[in-house]
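Try this one yourself first.
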Protein backbone atom coordinates (compact mmCIF):
# COMPACT_ATOMS: atom_id res chain seq x y z
CA UNK A 1 0.00 0.00 0.00
CA UNK A 2 2.82 2.32 0.74
CA UNK A 3 4.46 1.52 -2.50
CA UNK A 4 1.09 2.15 -4.40
CA UNK A 5 0.63 5.37 -2.66
CA UNK A 6 4.08 6.41 -3.61
CA UNK A 7 3.57 5.35 -7.24
CA UNK A 8 0.50 7.53 -7.45
CA UNK A 9 1.90 10.23 -5.24
CA UNK A 10 2.60 12.76 -7.89
CA UNK A 11 0.31 15.58 -7.24
CA UNK A 12 -1.63 13.66 -4.69
CA UNK A 13 -1.77 13.29 -0.95
CA UNK A 14 -0.24 10.48 1.01
CA UNK A 15 -2.89 8.16 2.31
CA UNK A 16 -0.87 7.32 5.32
CA UNK A 17 0.29 10.69 6.48
CA UNK A 18 -0.57 14.32 6.00
CA UNK A 19 -0.67 16.66 3.09
CA UNK A 20 0.34 16.80 -0.51
CA UNK A 21 3.83 16.14 -1.66
CA UNK A 22 5.66 16.33 -4.84
CA UNK A 23 8.13 13.92 -6.35
CA UNK A 24 10.92 15.73 -4.67
CA UNK A 25 9.33 15.41 -1.33
CA UNK A 26 8.34 11.82 -1.77
CA UNK A 27 11.35 10.51 0.01
CA UNK A 28 10.67 12.77 2.91
CA UNK A 29 7.34 11.12 3.73
CA UNK A 30 7.49 9.85 7.22
CA UNK A 31 5.38 6.80 6.48
CA UNK A 32 7.61 5.82 3.65
CA UNK A 33 10.76 6.19 5.64
CA UNK A 34 9.31 4.37 8.60
CA UNK A 35 8.13 1.43 6.56
CA UNK A 36 11.33 1.32 4.62
CA UNK A 37 13.34 1.29 7.86
CA UNK A 38 11.18 -1.47 9.26
CA UNK A 39 11.55 -3.42 6.05
CA UNK A 40 15.32 -3.07 6.15
CA UNK A 41 15.47 -4.03 9.82
CA UNK A 42 13.32 -7.04 9.19
CA UNK A 43 15.44 -8.10 6.30
CA UNK A 44 18.63 -7.65 8.30
CA UNK A 45 17.09 -9.52 11.21
CA UNK A 46 16.17 -12.38 8.94
CA UNK A 47 19.67 -12.43 7.50
CA UNK A 48 21.18 -12.42 11.00
CA UNK A 49 18.87 -15.21 12.11
CA UNK A 50 19.80 -17.26 9.08
CA UNK A 51 23.50 -16.60 9.74
CA UNK A 52 23.19 -17.43 13.43
CA UNK A 53 21.19 -20.55 12.64
CA UNK A 54 23.80 -21.60 10.13
CA UNK A 55 26.57 -20.88 12.64
CA UNK A 56 24.76 -22.78 15.39
CA UNK A 57 24.20 -25.69 13.10
CA UNK A 58 27.86 -25.58 12.25
CA UNK A 59 28.92 -25.37 15.89
CA UNK A 60 26.46 -27.91 17.22
CA UNK A 61 28.51 -30.92 18.57
CA UNK A 62 27.63 -34.34 17.42
CA UNK A 63 27.29 -37.40 19.72
CA UNK A 64 30.33 -38.95 18.15
CA UNK A 65 32.47 -35.91 18.86
CA UNK A 66 31.27 -35.84 22.46
CA UNK A 67 32.20 -39.49 22.92
CA UNK A 68 35.58 -38.80 21.41
CA UNK A 69 36.11 -35.90 23.78
CA UNK A 70 35.02 -38.07 26.72
CA UNK A 71 37.43 -40.83 25.78
CA UNK A 72 40.20 -38.32 25.30
CA UNK A 73 39.57 -36.85 28.73
CA UNK A 74 39.47 -40.27 30.34
CA UNK A 75 42.78 -41.11 28.67
CA UNK A 76 44.29 -37.90 29.96
CA UNK A 77 42.98 -38.64 33.46
CA UNK A 78 44.49 -42.13 33.39
CA UNK A 79 47.79 -40.72 32.23
CA UNK A 80 47.74 -38.23 35.06
CA UNK A 81 46.84 -40.94 37.56
CA UNK A 82 49.65 -43.14 36.27
CA UNK A 83 52.01 -40.21 36.50
CA UNK A 84 50.92 -39.55 40.06
CA UNK A 85 51.46 -43.22 40.97
CA UNK A 86 54.87 -43.22 39.31
CA UNK A 87 55.84 -40.09 41.19
CA UNK A 88 54.62 -41.63 44.45
CA UNK A 89 56.70 -44.75 43.78
CA UNK A 90 59.68 -42.59 42.89
CA UNK A 91 59.13 -40.52 46.00
CA UNK A 92 58.98 -43.66 48.15
CA UNK A 93 62.13 -44.97 46.46
CA UNK A 94 63.95 -41.72 47.14
CA UNK A 95 62.73 -41.78 50.74
CA UNK A 96 64.00 -45.35 51.16
CA UNK A 97 67.34 -44.40 49.61
CA UNK A 98 67.52 -41.44 51.95
CA UNK A 99 66.85 -43.65 54.97
CA UNK A 100 69.45 -46.13 53.74
CA UNK A 101 72.04 -43.39 53.31
CA UNK A 102 71.28 -42.02 56.77
CA UNK A 103 71.65 -45.52 58.25
CA UNK A 104 74.88 -46.06 56.32
CA UNK A 105 76.17 -42.71 57.52
CA UNK A 106 75.40 -43.63 61.13
CA UNK A 107 77.18 -46.96 60.69
CA UNK A 108 80.20 -45.22 59.23
CA UNK A 109 80.23 -42.76 62.11
CA UNK A 110 79.91 -45.61 64.61
CA UNK A 111 82.68 -47.55 62.91
CA UNK A 112 84.91 -44.49 62.73
CA UNK A 113 84.29 -43.86 66.41
CA UNK A 114 85.06 -47.50 67.17
CA UNK A 115 88.27 -47.37 65.14
CA UNK A 116 89.43 -44.20 66.87
CA UNK A 117 88.43 -45.61 70.25
CA UNK A 118 90.21 -48.88 69.52
CA UNK A 119 93.37 -47.07 68.49
CA UNK A 120 93.28 -44.89 71.58
CA UNK A 121 92.27 -47.53 74.13
CA UNK A 122 93.97 -50.63 72.74
CA UNK A 123 96.44 -51.82 75.39
CA UNK A 124 96.05 -48.48 77.16
CA UNK A 125 95.49 -49.04 80.89
CA UNK A 126 95.06 -45.31 81.54
CA UNK A 127 91.61 -45.33 79.94
CA UNK A 128 89.14 -47.28 82.05
CA UNK A 129 85.72 -48.47 80.98
CA UNK A 130 83.59 -47.45 83.94
CA UNK A 131 80.73 -49.69 82.77
CA UNK A 132 82.96 -52.77 83.09
CA UNK A 133 82.40 -54.45 86.44
CA UNK A 134 85.67 -56.34 85.94
CA UNK A 135 87.88 -53.31 85.41
CA UNK A 136 91.27 -53.35 87.20
CA UNK A 137 90.19 -51.28 90.19
CA UNK A 138 87.30 -53.67 90.85
CA UNK A 139 89.64 -56.64 90.50
CA UNK A 140 91.98 -55.05 93.04
CA UNK A 141 89.12 -54.98 95.55
CA UNK A 142 88.41 -58.65 94.93
CA UNK A 143 92.12 -59.35 95.30
CA UNK A 144 92.10 -57.87 98.80
CA UNK A 145 88.90 -59.72 99.67
CA UNK A 146 90.46 -62.98 98.50
CA UNK A 147 93.26 -62.55 101.01
CA UNK A 148 90.91 -61.51 103.82
CA UNK A 149 88.40 -64.32 103.29
CA UNK A 150 89.40 -67.41 101.30
CA UNK A 151 93.09 -67.13 102.14
CA UNK A 152 92.28 -67.03 105.86
CA UNK A 153 89.90 -69.98 105.55
CA UNK A 154 92.53 -72.02 103.72
CA UNK A 155 95.24 -71.08 106.22
CA UNK A 156 93.08 -72.12 109.15
CA UNK A 157 92.34 -75.45 107.53
CA UNK A 158 96.00 -76.25 106.86
CA UNK A 159 97.16 -75.32 110.34
CA UNK A 160 94.23 -76.74 112.30
CA UNK A 161 93.34 -79.86 110.30
CA UNK A 162 96.67 -80.87 108.75
CA UNK A 163 98.68 -79.33 111.63
CA UNK A 164 101.07 -77.56 109.28
CA UNK A 165 103.40 -74.89 110.61
CA UNK A 166 102.42 -71.27 110.04
CA UNK A 167 105.27 -70.47 107.68
CA UNK A 168 104.82 -73.73 105.77
CA UNK A 169 101.11 -73.06 105.29
CA UNK A 170 101.69 -69.50 104.06
CA UNK A 171 104.35 -70.53 101.57
CA UNK A 172 102.16 -73.36 100.24
CA UNK A 173 99.16 -71.05 99.72
CA UNK A 174 101.40 -68.45 98.08
CA UNK A 175 102.86 -71.05 95.72
CA UNK A 176 99.38 -72.31 94.87
CA UNK A 177 98.14 -68.82 94.02
CA UNK A 178 101.21 -67.98 91.91
CA UNK A 179 100.76 -71.23 89.97
CA UNK A 180 97.14 -70.36 89.29
CA UNK A 181 98.06 -66.86 88.11
CA UNK A 182 100.87 -68.06 85.84
CA UNK A 183 98.63 -70.76 84.34
CA UNK A 184 95.91 -68.20 83.58
CA UNK A 185 98.44 -65.75 82.22
CA UNK A 186 99.97 -68.41 79.93
CA UNK A 187 96.62 -69.62 78.59
CA UNK A 188 95.26 -66.10 77.99
CA UNK A 189 98.43 -65.18 76.10
CA UNK A 190 98.27 -68.31 73.91
CA UNK A 191 94.59 -67.81 73.16
CA UNK A 192 95.22 -64.23 72.08
CA UNK A 193 98.10 -65.26 69.83
CA UNK A 194 95.93 -67.90 68.17
CA UNK A 195 93.22 -65.29 67.66
CA UNK A 196 95.68 -62.98 65.93
CA UNK A 197 96.75 -65.78 63.58
CA UNK A 198 93.15 -66.62 62.69
CA UNK A 199 92.30 -62.99 61.96
CA UNK A 200 95.43 -62.67 59.85
CA UNK A 201 94.44 -65.73 57.79
CA UNK A 202 91.06 -64.18 57.07
CA UNK A 203 92.71 -60.80 56.36
CA UNK A 204 90.61 -59.11 58.99
CA UNK A 205 93.15 -58.63 61.72
CA UNK A 206 92.41 -54.96 62.17
CA UNK A 207 92.95 -53.17 65.43
CA UNK A 208 89.20 -52.56 65.68
CA UNK A 209 88.30 -56.25 65.24
CA UNK A 210 90.96 -57.46 67.65
CA UNK A 211 90.00 -54.84 70.22
CA UNK A 212 86.34 -55.84 69.99
CA UNK A 213 87.13 -59.51 70.53
CA UNK A 214 89.43 -58.75 73.44
CA UNK A 215 86.74 -56.65 75.07
CA UNK A 216 84.18 -59.42 74.64
CA UNK A 217 86.54 -61.93 76.18
CA UNK A 218 87.25 -59.55 79.04
CA UNK A 219 83.55 -59.10 79.83
CA UNK A 220 82.65 -62.75 79.33
CA UNK A 221 81.78 -64.84 82.38
CA UNK A 222 83.26 -67.98 80.82
CA UNK A 223 86.34 -69.08 82.76
CA UNK A 224 88.31 -72.16 81.57
CA UNK A 225 88.38 -73.51 85.11
CA UNK A 226 88.82 -77.17 84.18
CA UNK A 227 91.85 -76.49 81.99
CA UNK A 228 93.51 -74.47 84.74
CA UNK A 229 92.75 -76.75 87.67
CA UNK A 230 93.89 -79.77 85.65
CA UNK A 231 97.42 -78.39 85.74
CA UNK A 232 97.13 -77.75 89.46
CA UNK A 233 96.22 -81.37 90.08
CA UNK A 234 99.47 -82.34 88.41
CA UNK A 235 101.64 -79.91 90.37
CA UNK A 236 100.02 -80.46 93.76
CA UNK A 237 98.99 -84.12 93.44
CA UNK A 238 100.95 -85.09 96.52
CA UNK A 239 98.87 -82.72 98.65
CA UNK A 240 95.38 -84.02 97.87
CA UNK A 241 94.08 -83.20 101.34
CA UNK A 242 95.45 -79.68 101.16
CA UNK A 243 93.85 -79.20 97.72
CA UNK A 244 90.50 -80.27 99.15
CA UNK A 245 90.85 -77.80 102.01
CA UNK A 246 91.81 -75.05 99.56
CA UNK A 247 88.85 -75.65 97.23
CA UNK A 248 87.13 -72.31 97.86
CA UNK A 249 90.43 -70.46 97.66
CA UNK A 250 91.26 -72.19 94.36
CA UNK A 251 87.86 -71.46 92.79
CA UNK A 252 87.98 -67.76 93.62
CA UNK A 253 91.65 -67.51 92.63
CA UNK A 254 91.05 -69.14 89.23
CA UNK A 255 88.22 -66.77 88.37
CA UNK A 256 90.05 -63.69 89.62
CA UNK A 257 93.38 -64.55 87.97
CA UNK A 258 91.67 -65.27 84.66
CA UNK A 259 89.92 -61.90 84.72
CA UNK A 260 93.24 -60.25 85.49
CA UNK A 261 94.98 -62.14 82.68
CA UNK A 262 92.45 -61.12 80.02
CA UNK A 263 92.61 -57.41 80.79
CA UNK A 264 94.05 -55.23 78.06
CA UNK A 265 96.87 -55.04 79.01
CA UNK A 266 96.87 -57.79 81.68
CA UNK A 267 96.89 -56.94 85.36
CA UNK A 268 100.19 -58.12 86.81
CA UNK A 269 100.98 -60.07 89.99
CA UNK A 270 104.59 -59.81 91.14
CA UNK A 271 105.69 -63.43 91.23
CA UNK A 272 109.22 -62.59 92.44
CA UNK A 273 108.53 -63.68 95.99
CA UNK A 274 111.80 -65.39 96.89
CA UNK A 275 113.16 -62.24 98.51
CA UNK A 276 114.40 -63.49 101.87
CA UNK A 277 116.92 -61.08 103.31
CA UNK A 278 116.21 -58.30 100.82
CA UNK A 279 115.09 -54.83 101.89
CA UNK A 280 111.38 -54.68 102.63
CA UNK A 281 109.81 -51.87 100.56
CA UNK A 282 106.94 -50.49 102.60
CA UNK A 283 105.66 -48.70 99.48
CA UNK A 284 104.76 -52.13 98.10
CA UNK A 285 104.31 -54.29 101.19
CA UNK A 286 102.47 -54.19 104.47
CA UNK A 287 103.85 -56.03 107.51
CA UNK A 288 102.30 -59.34 108.46
CA UNK A 289 102.98 -59.74 112.17
CA UNK A 290 106.61 -58.70 112.39
CA UNK A 291 108.12 -55.40 111.32
CA UNK A 292 111.60 -55.31 109.94
CA UNK A 293 113.86 -53.65 107.42
CA UNK A 294 114.37 -56.97 105.63
CA UNK A 295 112.00 -59.55 104.16
CA UNK A 296 111.75 -62.83 105.99
CA UNK A 297 109.14 -64.26 103.59
CA UNK A 298 106.31 -62.99 101.40
CA UNK A 299 102.82 -63.88 102.54
CA UNK A 300 100.79 -62.27 99.72
CA UNK A 301 102.17 -60.83 96.45
CA UNK A 302 101.95 -57.24 95.17
CA UNK A 303 99.36 -56.40 92.49
CA UNK A 304 100.16 -53.90 89.71
CA UNK A 305 97.99 -52.38 86.99
CA UNK A 306 100.42 -53.69 84.35
CA UNK A 307 103.81 -55.35 84.43
CA UNK A 308 105.45 -51.94 84.67
CA UNK A 309 102.42 -49.98 85.80
CA UNK A 310 101.31 -48.36 89.02
CA UNK A 311 100.43 -50.19 92.22
CA UNK A 312 96.90 -51.53 92.61
CA UNK A 313 97.19 -53.42 95.89
CA UNK A 314 100.01 -53.86 98.38
CA UNK A 315 101.38 -57.27 99.24
CA UNK A 316 101.96 -58.74 102.71
CA UNK A 317 105.45 -59.64 103.98
CA UNK A 318 106.95 -60.79 107.24
CA UNK A 319 109.68 -58.50 108.45
CA UNK A 320 113.15 -59.62 109.53
CA UNK A 321 115.58 -57.68 111.73
CA UNK A 322 117.76 -60.28 113.40
CA UNK A 323 119.82 -61.10 110.36
CA UNK A 324 120.73 -57.47 109.64
CA UNK A 325 121.56 -56.86 113.30
CA UNK A 326 123.68 -60.02 113.42
CA UNK A 327 125.62 -58.94 110.34
CA UNK A 328 126.18 -55.50 111.82
CA UNK A 329 127.40 -57.03 115.07
CA UNK A 330 129.83 -59.31 113.19
CA UNK A 331 131.18 -56.30 111.28
CA UNK A 332 131.67 -54.34 114.48
CA UNK A 333 133.54 -57.25 116.08
CA UNK A 334 135.87 -57.64 113.10
CA UNK A 335 136.58 -53.94 113.05
CA UNK A 336 137.41 -53.94 116.77
CA UNK A 337 139.81 -56.93 116.43
CA UNK A 338 137.97 -59.03 118.99
CA UNK A 339 137.94 -62.79 118.58
CA UNK A 340 134.73 -64.42 117.45
CA UNK A 341 133.58 -67.72 118.98
CA UNK A 342 134.93 -69.50 115.88
CA UNK A 343 138.37 -67.90 116.22
CA UNK A 344 138.39 -68.75 119.87
CA UNK A 345 137.80 -72.41 119.02
CA UNK A 346 140.71 -72.27 116.61
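Now uncover the answer:
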Amino acid sequence: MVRTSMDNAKGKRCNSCCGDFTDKLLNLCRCYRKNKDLSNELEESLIDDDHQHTQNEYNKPTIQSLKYDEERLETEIKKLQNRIEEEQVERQTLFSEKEGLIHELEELRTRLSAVISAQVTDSNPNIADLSDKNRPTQLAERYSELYDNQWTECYDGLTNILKWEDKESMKWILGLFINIFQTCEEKASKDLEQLRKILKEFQSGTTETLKTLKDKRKKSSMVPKDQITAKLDGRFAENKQAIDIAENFINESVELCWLMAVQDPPVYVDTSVNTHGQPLDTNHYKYYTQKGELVDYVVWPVLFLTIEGPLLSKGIAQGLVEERQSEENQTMIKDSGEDTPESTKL
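Discussion: The first helix runs from residue 2 to 7. Confidence is low (pLDDT under 50) at residues 1-13, 18-28, 336-346.
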